[in-house]
Amino acid sequence: MRNILIIGAGKSTPYIVKYLMHKSSKENLFLTIGDIDINNAKKLATGYTNIRAIKFDILNKTNSSEQIFQSDIVISMLPARFHPLVASECLKHKKSLLTASYISDQMNELDDEVKRLGIIFMNEIGVDPGIDHMSAMKIIDKIKDEGNELVMFKSYTGGLIAPESDNNLWNYKFTWNPRNVVLAGQGGDAIFIERDKQKQIPYSKLFKNTELLEIDGYGNFEAYPNRDSLKYRSIYKLDNISTILRGTIRRPGFSNAWNVFVSLGMTDDSYSIQNSHMMSYSNYVDYFLSSNSIKSIESRIKNKLGINETNVIWHKLLELDIFSSTKKIPLKNATPAQILEYILLQNWQLEKNDKDMIVMYHKLGYKKNKKIHQIDSTMVSIGEDETYTAMAKTVGLPLAIATLGILNKEIKSTGVQLPVSKEIYIPILKELEEYNIKFKEKHVPFKL
Questions:
Q1: Number of C-alpha atoms within 13 angstroms, CB side, residue 72?
Q2: For residue 173, which of 41, 303, 348, 437 is within the disulfide window of CB 3.0 to 4.6 Å?
Q3: Measured CA distances, 89 to 30, 61, 95, 424, 442 (Å)
Q4: Looking at residue 9, what DSSP letter applies?
Q5: Is residue 287 part of a domain?
Q6: Overall number of domains in the chain
Q7: For 100-253, where are the E strands, in sequence order?
């Protein structure tokens, strides 16, 4: 049996297990799912053979080292900060490793050693990053192979609620880590290039800079710039491109309403509010308002935001019941961001029969015969339920498929890498189509 160790039984792990168990007899696989809470691992192992659940604590070096030693390959679904610990043990025992996380400088520094050992550390092999890389490179390579020059690359991804489960004014529910949603955009200024001019947007203005998108059959969306797009010039071999931008997708109006929280300071995670556990929701809002007024909190908010009772933003705030004087914050000495996350969790949790949706949109402009053409490539994936979500599917399946590709020596290039080569993206994208993760391409008039 070939032993696969999956570390972490979180929200994106179910599809990894489902896929590999489906392949287990034919591919002679045995899975070990390790989680710090063994009950999480047992839940995913229930109903399958050739699988076991164990308690796994990466900080317990003796136990974690033994489990990695016994495996043939490792998939780490832990938070990114723990990947270096897993990588260290994988190096010690000469095991290949896969993660869905952004590649870190610390991970990149291991490249020479990973190559020397003849193993593979595959990173960014989820959805975003992951499927976005592979689907983009497929079109980029095709355009280049035909002798054409890329002049524009824009790529957007969003984890949203599916239309049939969209029942709140924000058109949004949490489909992945809520903390990451609340802190979105705080990893540094959004940096990109447009018409050969570098643009830099600070967090305070990020949600005021949106672009309208439309996907056939799914209506309108908006997108805001995400992180540093410039590094993708070298990753995608687009060093001379005149426009490059990556962004995040939401439904129209979300960003404008979210900017209320940003402008008030509610997304700040840099300090704690003393005695936050004694606050009501209304106390929390009042914390960010001027205290030299006898007006109600609602009136002060409307004055500060320049809105009235007819404004959709006002109704979005009311829907969260954020002005309640009876609902309490149960968190001690919490940051503003942690409190906001708690309030939103009460409203934006996926319900049992809810379906989520992953949306991806690439825009590529290229010069052919002295004329500029454009290809728009879109993908929409709808989840099954609150467990087998589109997020879990689009993160988990590429990881699982790549794991088999490495085990079967179909992916051969060693070292620390991303899924941007034909050896990786061609077979994975082809197999993803079997699971209805497909891109639709159309030629449209060029427009920045």
A1: 14
A2: 348
A3: 20, 9, 8, 25, 46
A4: -
A5: no
A6: 2
A7: 120-122, 149-161, 190-194, 197-201, 211-215, 219-225, 243-250
The per-residue pLDDT string of the chain (448 residues; one tens digit each, 9 = 90 and over) reads 999 999 999 989 999 999 999 999 999 999 999 999 999 999 999 999 999 999 999 999 999 999 999 999 999 999 999 999 999 999 999 999 999 999 999 999 999 999 999 999 999 999 999 999 999 999 999 999 999 999 999 999 999 999 999 999 999 999 888 999 999 999 899 999 999 999 999 999 999 999 999 999 999 999 999 999 999 999 999 999 999 999 999 999 999 999 999 999 999 999 999 999 999 999 999 999 977 677 889 999 999 999 999 999 999 999 999 999 999 999 999 999 999 999 999 999 999 889 999 999 999 999 999 899 999 999 999 999 888 899 999 999 999 999 999 999 999 999 999 999 999 999 999 999 999 999 999 999 888 7
144 lies in the same domain as 80: no
Dihedral angle computed from the Cα positions of residues 338, 383, 133 and 203, in that order, rounded to the nearest 10 degrees: -30
Rounded distance between C-alpha atoms, residue 86 and residue 302, angstroms: 50
Q: Which residue has the tokens 């309108």?
A: 220
- Cα angle 184, 186, 192 (rounded to 5 degrees) comes to 90
* Both tokens assigned to 81: 């900060």
Type of residue found at 152: M
Strands (E), 328-439: 356-368, 371-382, 415-417
239: exposed, middle or buried (C-beta count within 10 Å: 0-12, 13-18, 19+)? exposed
CATH of residue 47's domain is 3.40.50.720
**Domain co-membership, 172 together with 246:** yes
Burial of 123 from C-beta contacts in 10 A (0-12 / 13-18 / 19+): buried
Q: What is the DSSP string of 144-175?
A: HHTT-EEEEEEEEEEEEE-GGG--STT-----
Residue 419: cis peptide before it, omega within 30 degrees of 0: no
Name the token pair of 425. Answer: 């993206």
**Domain presence at residue 405:** yes
Specify whether the CB–CB gap between 340 and 258 falls below 8 A. no
Tokens 């890389």 sit at which residue? 133
Q: What is the dihedral of CA 274, 276, 281, 286, to 10 degrees?
A: 0
